[in-house]
Structure prediction request, 106 residues.
Amino acid sequence: MESWGKAIEEACRGMMEIQRKILGELWEWDKNILGELEERIKKIRGDLERCRRMNISQKSVNREHILRFKLERLLDQHNIYWKQRAHNKGRPEYRFLSCICLKKEN
Prediction:
């Protein structure tokens, strides 16, 4: 909704121009959010591996539990993201927008 309002305020002419503007912002958001999520997963996995290699102590055990919890939540978010994307693939408006994305990338 925010992108739609911005596109109209910027005096985009025509529906195609508005859709291209919105699609561009969605593409950037998708790249930044998903990229960040994958980087956070990678970082937590590295932290967890380093924690497992430490000497066993109550502190390291507690840290490992916290890291496992964080990793589980991040993986859940990642799975939800991909389920939502897979669910949208059958919708006509998604096919339209994905065609524009593919043309934009090539």
User: Anything to note?
Assistant: The chain has a mean pLDDT of 78.
